[in-house]
């Protein structure tokens, strides 16, 4: 990269990332032809099908064995549609039954009463309590599982090992080889007898069987890994109420009778009925196929498993689990497909097809030359006798000779078609991980990702002054304390459990809720008493757009209190008074407002999250009593009384600064996008190293969401590049930023945990959801789930993504070297002398080293720190770099030169003149085969570090690599020393073994010398494109 260029620049032809077009946002999602699948993240099945039909692919059944099975995908859709129809019928029937049960009453309170009776009746039948849940007793839970079933469903059995063997047998070239082996076997036995005649055909068959078994084992292990990954993905953890306590359990451990709290973003884990809820809206599209949000209340209380909570919160009573639910029936009827077309796979298939076509052309040329030489009498046996004489050679001998020639040609195709390329990427096959290696920017959340998500209330402003310590109630009036406790207890989705026998209080909920609830407990709050002292009649769940949430609670005296809680400066802006120590309401004048704003700024500058709590009394007569009115009633948001402003401390993660610096060093810009106060975001960004100094902490580096939102599209494109921190951002602001960055040519990774983050996660090149705090909606919209919610883990994904790409390049360099060398040696030898030094069985063994074992050895190299010293790689930049071309051409030229010299002058060089022609030829060809294999073994070390001098760095840490090298050497020794009858080789003396090893080991110093040769930064492909374009433009234009 030239000096002065942006470290975040993209390759100018990287249209996949959106930098090529200058048009609208759709430019980088649209494509003109079937090959232009710019992003496989959301590619339709029809589009992938067109791509498959358009692509010329050798061995399609094997090449696409790791990608999406389009036929199965269509069958899966049909099954889902059938079950959805069934679910709709059930739902309509249930609704009709409920309508009949409720006697079609329109009276709001009568309806509530009827539903309460139904819930109570079900609770009694199921021996549960609608508030405290079932008893948290092992025998009780086991009994429920026995009677009602467990929340699991029978999964379709994965394909057996023998199915993978059958799939491997379908390889076209291997089938041809098996037919050739059978014919050779039959002719050999006929002409030479069964004792000697089975070797030629049998050895080819054995080699093919080994290739099939190794391929099947590799594919089977891949399938098992996917099954384990899929089970882990489906093992959702959620809270249930048991014995009055909220406990976190696996979704598979839910039983009938469980009481489950639901909040926005959750997945409904089983079928059930609504016990209570406020503004609860369910997305039933996963079951009905209709993208329609359904509101749940006493009129429509039934909840279906697998649906998502789109808004609000509530509690449900589980009535059926597992296979007894529509979701369980659906999941049991379909099997998860591990196929997804990854961008790198698409490119590798193209490379593999190109190499295969070259190999096919070469094989046809060799076939024609060898057949022509054979039938014209130019091919000779080791004793110099002519192999074929017209009119004299028997038909059987002629067919046998032709089959041997045909076998050599087919084997060249086997070597040339690199089936190992798709295998290499599928060993660490996550499409998103692969894309993450190209990421140029990461838009990260603050809370829980850059920070520990362990919040505590450390500063409090009440009655117009700072209270120290925060839980000191001695200076606070009793009315204010009771109002605070009422607000904290009712305006929350968390809970507090006090064990009956005493012990520590257990607080559950989100980190912010837990911190405020714990503060409430410290103020003297009894959670259960506070909840029962009033009832919630209406709720406005916390909203990321408005940055606040509220409830309307009704007291026994019919008075209604409206409580709000949310972003401090927003709630403060809606307040007109505060309560002083004498319980008087004092108007918020300009000075006092400035005092509170200054307090918020001071806390935010100290990296505290600021939350304000306010309330407003509302007389009962102003409160709607009619159900229809209550549904459309909007809670008053103005004229509020400020009760408290609290500052919550959430420390930065210990190693986050190092992780951020590592990203910057790797050319990946980290941007913080948070809903928190801009000053809080600024303080955390400085602490994490996202902002280097206070001088950087100004616009446009530091920007508020509403400011960015107000810009025109062109202005957003300009500003987006400079943004390091965005505070008080809404989910839509995050989406706008992602879109702008992608249009600027960035490959964007986005972290998110909330339901509202789903659009940005889906829009990004790589969506990363948080495994602990992330909602199920966020996880479903993401590509990767970060299990520990740690930013350092995001950086690890970048390392692994780059490692996948680098390992594929290592493997391609290694494989192309073998391809070029093997093809050139056999073609030159065949054309010039009519004989090939590497026969079919030997080439099949080389194919095994090169494809399967080579892929395992090189594609499983663990990531190194060196990967983070490079800038991101554009996904449309050449897969084969100039450095790779230099390395492979040097090695291939060396191997071809040495082995061809041995082929033509080997008898003289090896001092074999005194031996018979047949013995000399066998020894020479054995040495060529042995030297060729050892050249690949030693070159495999070179391929580990294409751009580093020290190719042995960290080699002993990769036990798999060392094991495969050792295994290959041992097998080669066994082949030469004991399996000569099969491979047409002879035992070699120690001197010849030494010659083979020396020929191989020379590749090490040769690689070091080669790396001293400078290469152009411009890809070779651009030179060819320019030559092609100039030739095309120089052609005369026809009138």
Structural class: alpha/beta
Strand content: 5-15%
* Average predicted confidence as pLDDT: 80
- Number of helical segments with 4 or more residues: 37
Largest sheet: 9 strands, mixed
The radius of gyration computed from the alpha-carbon positions, rounded to a whole number of angstroms, is 36 Å
Molecular shape: elongated
What does this structure look like?
With 1039 residues, the chain is an alpha/beta fold. Helices cover 50% and strands 14% of the residues. It is built from 37 helices and 25 strands. Strands 9, 10, 13, 14, 15, 16, 17, 18 and 19 form a nine-stranded mixed sheet that branches. A seven-stranded parallel sheet has the order 21-22-20-8-23-24-25, with helices on both faces. Strands 3, 4, 5, 6 and 7 form a five-stranded antiparallel sheet that branches. Strand 16 and strand 17 form a beta hairpin. It is elongated, with a radius of gyration of 36 Å. Mean pLDDT is 80; it is low at 1-38, 51-66, 102-109, 337-341 and 422-430.
Features:
1039 residues; alpha/beta; nine-stranded mixed β-sheet; seven-stranded parallel β-sheet; 37 helices; 25 strands; disordered N terminus
Layout of secondary structure:
Layout: H1 45-54, H2 60-63, H3 70-101, H4 108-125, H5 138-148, H6 161-169, H7 172-192, H8 194-197, H9 199-234, E1 237-242, E2 245-250, E3 259-263, E4 271-283, H10 285-288, E5 293-295, E6 302-303, E7 308-320, H11 326-333, H12 343-375, H13 395-416, H14 420-426, H15 431-436, E8 441-444, E9 456-462, E10 465-467, H16 478-490, E11 495-497, E12 506-508, H17 511-522, H18 527-532, E13 535-543, E14 548-554, E15 560-567, H19 568-573, E16 575-579, E17 585-587, H20 590-605, E18 608-618, H21 627-632, E19 640-649, H22 656-665, E20 669-673, H23 678-688, E21 702-704, H24 705-710, H25 713-720, E22 725-727, H26 731-743, E23 748-752, H27 758-763, E24 766-770, H28 776-781, E25 784-786, H29 791-833, H30 840-859, H31 882-909, H32 917-944, H33 959-978, H34 980-983, H35 990-1001, H36 1003-1010, H37 1020-1034
Parallel strand pairs: 8-20, 8-23, 16-19, 20-22, 21-22, 23-24, 24-25
Antiparallel strand pairs: 1-2, 3-7, 4-5, 4-6, 4-7, 9-10, 9-19, 11-12, 13-14, 14-15, 15-18, 16-17, 18-19
